[in-house]
Structure formats: C-alpha cells, structure tokens
Amino acid sequence: MDATTAPHRIPPEMPQYGEANHIFEMMQNMLEQLLIYRPEEPIPFMIDHLQQNNDNVPKIVVLGPPAAGKTTIAIWLCKHLNSNLLTTENLIAKEFSSLAAGARGHYQKAKSVPGTLLVRLIQERLREDDCVKRGWILDGIPETREQALTIQTLGIIPRHIIVLSAPDTVLIERNLGKRIDPQTGEIYHTTFDWPPESEIQNRLVVPTGILELETAQKLLEYHRNIVRILPLYPKILKVISADQPCVDVFYQALTYVQTNHRSNAPFTPRVLLCGPVGSGKSLQAALLAQKYRLVNVCCGQLLKEAVADKSAYGKVIQPFFEKEMAVPDNIVMKVLCQRLNQPDCIQKGWVLHGFPRDLDQARLLDRADHRPNRVFFLNVPLDSIIERVTLRRTDPVTGERYNARLLAGA
Ligand SMILES: Nc1nc2c(ncn2[C@H]2C[C@H](O)[C@@H](COP(=O)(O)OP(=O)(O)OP(=O)(O)O)O2)c(=O)[nH]1
Ligand SMILES: Nc1ncnc2c1ncn2[C@@H]1O[C@H](COP(=O)(O)OP(=O)(O)O)[C@@H](O)[C@H]1O
C-alpha cells in the first residue's frame, strides 16, 4: 500500500484538542458570520470576530402567549446570567436614536411597531458593546414568521429558544392579576407573586391590555403566528409548561439555556462501560460496537491475546497469569495504549470495558490522554449478578459467553 492510500495516522491528541477547545464550533460560528455579513475585508473581520470571543454568551429568545411569564422569566434569566433584556418597550425607549423615535411614533398610534423597524432596532441594539460582551435575551420577539426570517437574515442567531405554554383559560385568568412596579419595571401578581414590601405594594400599577377580551385577542394572534415561527428553529427550542410555579419554570429554562447543543463537529465516540462482574459489559460492548461501528476493546481479552501471541508484553504478563496474580497497572496500560493508539480506534472510536477497575487505573487512563467522552455504569442488583455469573457459560473455541438459562430455552 503506497503512502498516498495508507490511512493517515491521526494522533489522538488532534481530535481531543479540537473537542476540548471547541475549535470546530468556533470555526463554524466565524464562517456563519462571514457568509452573513460578507465583509469587504474578511481577514480583519475574522480577527475582530475571534477577539470578541462571544460565541458562548447568552443569545436567548423567550416566546409564549400573553401572561405565560415571558417577561418574568426573561428578567430572572438576565439577572442570573448578567445579560441584557431586549423588549419592544425598552428598544423603542432608546434615546438619541432616530429609529427608536420613529418606532415610538408608531407605538403611540397603533400600540405596535412595524416588524422591519423593530428588527432594525434589534440589530442596532445588538451591535452595542454590552450585548456583544454579555449577550442578550429577547422577550417575546420575533412575533411573526416574517420577523423571524428577517432576524435570521441579519445574522441574529439565538443559541436557545424557550417557548412557554399554558392553557388559554389559565392565561386569561392570570393576566387579570398582573401588576407592574413603575419604578423598577418588575412584574408582580396579586395572587402568585405579591411583593412583601408595603412601599412597593402601594406603588404598583395595573398595566393596560390585561382585560379578558384583550388577552383573548392577543392569544388568537399568538396562536396564529407561533405555529409558523417554531419550524424555523427545529434544533434549538424547548417548550416549557408555564402552568406551574414561576420558580419551577425559571429553573427548567435556566437548565436548558446552560446546556450546549450537540455541534456538527466530527465526533469520535470513546465509550467506557463500567460495572461489577456479570453486569453485562461484554454483551453491551459487543452490541454498541456492532451498532456504531466502534472498536470493541476488552482489556482482559487484550492481555490474553498478548500472552497467546507470545509478544514481548505477553511474555511479561504470562507469569502473572500462571500465578493467578493481578497484572501490574503499568504493564496493562502499555498493552491498552498500544491498542487505543492504533488508527482504527482513533478514526472509528472505541468502547472499552474491563478497565479501569480502580481509581489508580482511571488516573493512568486519564494521564495517557485516552479520556472517554461517554461513560456508562451498569448497575445490576446483586442477586441478578450472582444468577448471571453462575449461569454463565463460555465457548472455549470462540470465547463467546452465553447464559445457561437462555441456552436451555433456546
Ligand atoms: N438477563 C440478562 N442477562 C445478561 C445481560 N447482559 C449480560 N447478561 C448475561 C450474559 C452473561 O451470561 C452474563 C454476564 O454478561 P457479561 O459477560 O457481558 O458481563 P460482564 O462482561 O460485565 O462480566 P465480566 O465483568 O466481563 O466478567 O450475564 C442482560 O442485560 N440481561
Ligand atoms: N408560572 C407562573 N405562575 C403564576 N403566575 C405567573 C407565572 N409566570 C408569570 N406569572 C404572572 O403572570 C403575569 C404575567 O407575567 P408576564 O411575565 O408579564 O407574562 P408575559 O410576559 O408572558 O405576558 C404576571 O403578573 C406574573 O407575575
């Protein structure tokens, strides 16, 4: 086989470095921005993008019907994540902005802002330093599919979308109790979230647009639009029931926005199966190897093969086998690393079982840079273990293991 067709040996450090430093995601984000903004000077644009280093800042959209708790949850998320809340109200309230002044005019007349104007206001706001550095949370925007498409075209791409949902009847009833603190903008509720301080209680105001008919009309508008928006964000949205205490909604939302989505980065599975004897490691490893085309690495089998092949390591191991003593960890590691460093393990990935058996061995594996990226512990009750091990039969020719009960039934 000439050098051009030989499988290129990819040192294990390469894919691990790429995974550990999110290189693939970084390059993917930069490529997205380049294609969206198509700068005259790509190199300075890329340098600036990389220096911003804001791929992981919050970029969240909170959607939901009126009174679902969008603003409440968005405010709490902003405080917890130290990010910036963007609402229609605070976007049009921006001073020294002709766009905002025009939008205020529309809002005063029609209680709404034209979609294109609103999206340009968002784009203007997201370019400001605080949004670049600390991210943003859009409350109730986009309101329509057209707005969502325009936002996407401008390169405004959220990382997480939360969609709150609750029965209309609950929302209509709930909205009647909404109260707002005009000084802080904080939202309260006469039943579910009444402030303890009498000073705040006394200054709360009843917001407009919360009467039953008004909420019902907004609900109709929302249901008409949301079904056309959601298909635009298939992989980054999570629906959370808002018909539960605010705090529960918040913690579900926070957990979601703090998870990283699976990226498109090439992923090499390095699976570790742990569990007591007879827990099914070998069986599950064989099934995983077959299903995902992984290399099945059974540590015990590797040592036996080294002895059978009378390899250099095999000759060192044999005396320990003959005296039925544990093979020293450093020797096991040499045999294991020799196998894990082979091209098939690096390119296809592996499923390892029978090692590590203790913390020292686990540390050795970690130091050898063969860190698993999926670890499963097979937890089986003791009586099942005893039954399986006593009923286990091994084919001396193939080494295959069987369960005598299953064989009897076969
Ligand atoms: N009923 C049942 N039996 C299983 C299951 N997985 C494995 N077995 C049977 C097959 C074998 O006869 C016995 C032990 O299975 P394995 O040899 O795969 O267990 P393991 O590799 O963990 O044992 P080891 O630590 O290598 O001695 O239990 C399972 O999920 N359900
Ligand atoms: N999960 C919840 N349970 C009970 N009341 C809630 C919940 N979420 C929000 N509220 C209350 O409902 C009213 C509307 O909340 P708000 O955050 O303004 O909803 P939205 O922004 O979706 O219109 C407020 O009085 C708020 O305190």
TrEMBL record:
It comes from the Eukaryota. It is an enzyme of class 2 (transferase). SUPFAM superfamilies: Microbial and mitochondrial ADK, insert 'zinc finger' domain, P-loop containing nucleoside triphosphate hydrolases. It catalyses: AMP + ATP = 2 ADP; a ribonucleoside 5'-diphosphate + ATP = a ribonucleoside 5'-triphosphate + ADP; a 2'-deoxyribonucleoside 5'-diphosphate + ATP = a 2'-deoxyribonucleoside 5'-triphosphate + ADP. It is found in: Cytoplasm, Cytosol. Coiled coil: none annotated. Its main location: cytoplasm. The keyword Zinc-finger does not apply. InterPro entries: Adenylat/UMP-CMP_kin, ADK_active_lid_dom_sf, P-loop_NTPase. GO terms for molecular function: AMP kinase activity; ATP binding; nucleoside diphosphate kinase activity. GO terms for cellular component: cytosol. Its EC number is 2.7.4.3, 2.7.4.6. PANTHER family: NUCLEOTIDE KINASE. Belongs to the adenylate kinase family. This is Adenylate kinase 8. The gene is AK8.
